Give the backbone structure.
Amino acid sequence: MKVLGGPASQLLGSRVAREIGCELAIVEFKQFPDGELYLRIAEELDGDTLIVQSTTTNNDIIYLLQLIDAASDGYLRVAIPYFGYARQDKRFKLGEPISARAIAKAIDADESYVVNIHDPASLDHFHLRNGKKAVNLSAAGLIGNYLKGMEFTSPLLIAPDEGATALVIDVSKAMGCEFDVLVKKRVTPERVEIQPKTVHVDARDVVIVDDMISTGGTMAEAIKLLRGQGARQVHVACIHPVLSLNAQLRLYRAGVDSIIATDTIEKTESVISVAPIIKKAVEGC
Ligand code: R5P
């Protein structure tokens, strides 16, 4: 099998190839002056291919479709560690598309894996060859194990909203510590309100865990609430560090001690690799 690391997942693609112990192919890519994208797999494939490409930007989606087309002969596995547009998984208003479905339908592969997709119901939108189902991998255990290796005083995990509860439960099981859940209301795409709640964090170290940090609005509000209630240290951890606009500034301004994330999106904060769970999925463990 050969691994194709797409433009958005060059590091993770390399790590997956190393984990599995197979060849990492060279992919060349560029943008034409009119904005169109070009991509070429610069070597022969062997009929068994794994593409690793997150879709954080619109260009990443085009590159993914080009990679799938270029590698379509033979058995094809497609790992989309961060599946963009997953939050538009419903028609919230009349006339809207289900964007997650539009993209999932375009994945022509034998197997496909995503990591902690926003809503696992989106997996039903994939139509893979031979009727196979797309698989949602969880990086919760990897985050829990990473946090277990950090030195904390009386640690407490926090879900910043009810949607993050299942993830926080899984991280707390791997880490072996308590958790609590906050309640959030989104006012605008950039602004959220967290309902006032007394959390007993006095002199404790807190890690707020969510599936993704986008504008940082959710985390910033949670950090302020917990700091205001006397937390000793406040860290944030997420699977997908989208970190759009001035998210890092918002988080540090709110008083975060560190930002911990996986490499589903390759950022400075991506200190945990999801390569082991992709390897397991490929090997069918
Ligand atoms: C929401 O449903 C997600 O789980 C995250 O809480 C949200 O996407 C984070 O977005 P932001 O960083 O912009 O508040």
